[in-house]
Amino acid sequence: MATITDLSVKTIDGEDRALSSYQGQVLLIVNVASYCGYTPQYQGLQALHEKYSAQGLRILAFPCNDFGSQEPGTNDQIKTFCSTRYSVTFELFDKVHAKGAEQHPLYARLTSGAEPTGDVAWNFEKFLIGKNGEILGRFPSRIAPDSAELIGAIEQALAA
């Protein structure tokens, strides 16, 4: 089973973060963008964070400009947008490539280890990661953060 615990990422402030530091927690990894039709999903992601963080859910948002150039901003601009527009308090990370020749190793692992395999299709695609770092599920952009399908999968992962 594919896991992500041996990988490291950079926070939006440029600090290295080992994904192994999230051992024992459930992760929802999302590629985000500020100028997308799905951008209002930030609100739903924040609601999930507020409802489930005390139970061990961590939302990890990775800005990405791969889809329609809908995330052109700098990390500072993205941070400001997220905090002022959507009051985001979940974790934001350095802008990455979710597909293509410069695909981040995290997304290489996610897209080859989750069903269905293959490239991320658009902004706000979600990957659910279990407490031991295994990839539990993949949810396309159209699956909203407040959808019964996603909430059910999160609650099941938290209960495991």
From TrEMBL:
Keywords: Oxidoreductase, Peroxidase. PROSITE patterns: GLUTATHIONE_PEROXID_1 (PS00460), GLUTATHIONE_PEROXID_3 (PS51355). It comes from the Bacteria. The keyword Oxidoreductase applies. Coiled coil: none annotated. GO terms for molecular function: peroxidase activity. The keyword Iron-sulfur does not apply. Belongs to the glutathione peroxidase family. This is Glutathione peroxidase. It comes from Limnothrix redekei LRLZ20PSL1.
